[in-house]
Amino acid sequence: MSIQGIDPRTGSPVGAPVPVTPPEPLLAAAAGAFGVFKATTPGVRAELLTLLADRLDAAASSLVPLAVAESGLPEARLTGELARTSAQLRLFASVVTEGAYLEAILEDADPSATPPRPVLARWLEPVGPVLVYAASNFPFAFSVLGGDTASALATGAPVLVKAHGSHPGLSAAVAALASAAVADAGLPAGVFGIVFGDDEGVTALKDPRVKAAGFTGSTTGGRFLFDVASSRSDPIPFFGELGSINPAVVTPAAVAARPDEIVSGFVGSFTLGAGQFCTKPGLLFLPAGHGLSFGPAVAAVAPAPMLNARIADQLASGLTDLSSHPGVAEVASGPDAPAEGSWASPRLFITSTDAFDPSLTEEHFGPAALIVEYQDENDLFAALSTIEGSLTATVHGEPGDPFPVARLLSVLSDRAGRVVWNGWPTGVAVSWAMSHGGPWPSTTNSAHTSVGATAIRRWLRPVTFQSMPDDLLPPALQAANPWKIPRRE
Amino acid sequence: MSIQGIDPRTGSPVGAPVPVTPPEPLLAAAAGAFGVFKATTPGVRAELLTLLADRLDAAASSLVPLAVAESGLPEARLTGELARTSAQLRLFASVVTEGAYLEAILEDADPSATPPRPVLARWLEPVGPVLVYAASNFPFAFSVLGGDTASALATGAPVLVKAHGSHPGLSAAVAALASAAVADAGLPAGVFGIVFGDDEGVTALKDPRVKAAGFTGSTTGGRFLFDVASSRSDPIPFFGELGSINPAVVTPAAVAARPDEIVSGFVGSFTLGAGQFCTKPGLLFLPAGHGLSFGPAVAAVAPAPMLNARIADQLASGLTDLSSHPGVAEVASGPDAPAEGSWASPRLFITSTDAFDPSLTEEHFGPAALIVEYQDENDLFAALSTIEGSLTATVHGEPGDPFPVARLLSVLSDRAGRVVWNGWPTGVAVSWAMSHGGPWPSTTNSAHTSVGATAIRRWLRPVTFQSMPDDLLPPALQAANPWKIPRRE
Q1: Catalytically annotated residue among B47, B241, B363, B388
Q2: Quick check: is A24 catalytic?
Q3: B241 in catalytic set
Q4: What are the structural domains of chain A?
Q5: Which of A128, B151, B316, B368 has the fewest CB atoms lying closer than 10 Å?
């Protein structure tokens, strides 16, 4: 068995097929490496992350063309995405060095407490080997050396990546670079591994040596794997980022103040990267009688290749269903797409809150969106109450807006991990304050983010040492604080 | 249908039966109260927690006798446990007021970042209504107003308690007190509710208005409920604290230095509260030839009532299996227990690493434990590698101990949430640095604690506001920092 990369622009094979990988040796190596890797200093892990970033940057000229050929995404976008990916590795190097992520807490004894308190020292330790499922839509940033891998390695957890079948050649090349960096950093080979093959990935997920998993992909695939992880005899946390409809709401005042910006911003956002972003705004709520015309802006967007034939087929069949939904009409579309390969053109649909139902809140992965016209605020809030969790929610309003904006933000913050004001949700900064997560089905676990510094918390568990002699404590908890990390004490 | 309290000392009914509760009105009330409760200031929530603590303390003289009658636990223990429970409510009042638990992060825009960063503000919001399953073994501290309830209310999450069937009268009395406090605090009734009945509890767990659940109890019961929570069409986090064997290891040097202390400390710990602590040390690893005699200490421990007849029956049948395991012998036992009611006497067994297998690592809930004699360190580490996750692990060693203590601590910290040095694991302080959690099966989610200040993190999810005007941000994230909380900015 092997995995063949396909150029979605032409449907032709790219490079040699990559054989599937027996997971057993990789699992044994990861488990074997854990003791050594978790005991490394923050400095060693920061050096590894920085080395990975440097090597990735240095290999850009060979990796980007491979990514273009296997994903059909434009060279400029992939060049930027590679830079984002190395920046992300460097962010986690700084997170590790700073050390607040360890949540260290030292407490003196208090015999008068109820119950009496001994001397306690608490920090976070890595959970053990982590399995990372790479995504198709960000061949660098959510793939082999993406955010899940970077944040897990930062903790001292060995990582086993399940490569995405849409870019096997690129995955193998990045994995080779990563393994070389691990070796050059003097760390055991089991710190990083890669497995090719869907069945092999499931075998790894069921293995007791794997202690947590991260995933970015479809709701169907993520739910299947979440169920595998949860039904193990020893269930493990599965952090899946699945589907998201990302509602955007425009108030009447915003339509009146910024009609052109709303049209161009929305069309730019839902068609960016051929609409293959988890944060694509899939629903736009507009006041009835808005008078906005989307036709010219949509018609100006060129057709683009989808990541693979399956995604293109699912988009086409999903939009056929959407078109035939009572009360839904197509309001704008782009130029015809080429017949060869897996291309798609932008398509925009429209309905009203009267015809709105939960079937219209399903994500269509690709350059498609649905406008929902509302009559008044009651109407809007009723429709919003039927929408499941999303990664993002967006509001366009004005200063002194007569619309109940505060209530709108409260309702939307219950349903989304990021609430955007007068912007668009595509474009996810990699930083301390970012959250990329949200209630089901946008993730399997709304308590965490998969982007940004705090994504590291997913791979950690608290351990408290009671009455432990100073020299037997981990350095992070010793009286002298040799790592100079922030602590509560 | 109704739930009848039974005095385990006599087998006789206590008080009137408590009817099972239809969950629908409680679920509707909890969901309805969420918007108001989550928007309260920290001050309002701290006042509610303090009021609950005060009311609990004030009702001690009526509540403690009820708890004694329904649990068979001694009055002094329950008086102390009530004080621990009110102290826990007050701890969370201070956690809320201090505000670091909100993990607030403010970031300026950085157009030069890859990708560009807008102005971001992140904090943690409550997940929504929380379902709390009360435990039998701590009728105050892990029940109606126990740690799960206190930590969830602290966040602004309404709580629905599933009462434990072993103390229905006490549960109803504490719930009445809690509801009155909620009303007196001017909060909606749905902020606190209680449901009686196992089927009713499962109905509530399946309900989409419930967003997370906490549980303390058996591995079988916890696994069943974890599976219910995980197999919902919208899975929710289920924080279960299940079974734990809590291994303790004594080095040869410690045996030589402190033989009497080790015998009396261990026997005191495994028989405390009739061995009905989640943190009871169930396995004691001793060097072969230790020469310790446990007979007199065990014989001096009086029989005690078990919490209910089911627990007493399971202990008896479990110990019958243990006695018949090849290579296991009974080494000490207590005086005969009374025939009426549900009493048990302490029993201590012994085996060696040669005969040790995973069936011997199962928890026997009650005053029973197993000594495992090891020949050398290889022998010991091989045996430890077969033990599943625990809440605690204990090491007794000496200064300059020739035993590989550092390696032992590293191995044990992978398997337990709290590592105790030269003490015993029963007795769980309620404080900032405590961790009460551990790998499966000791919990369903090793990333969190159910005791101590950081237990609050279980009921929270991050939300980031992007480019949001200051007056539309939650107060915690506004420039003026009106709540005066610590923030990363």
Answers
A1: B241
A2: no
A3: yes
A4: 2-242+443-477 (3.40.605.10), 247-421 (3.40.309.10)
A5: B316
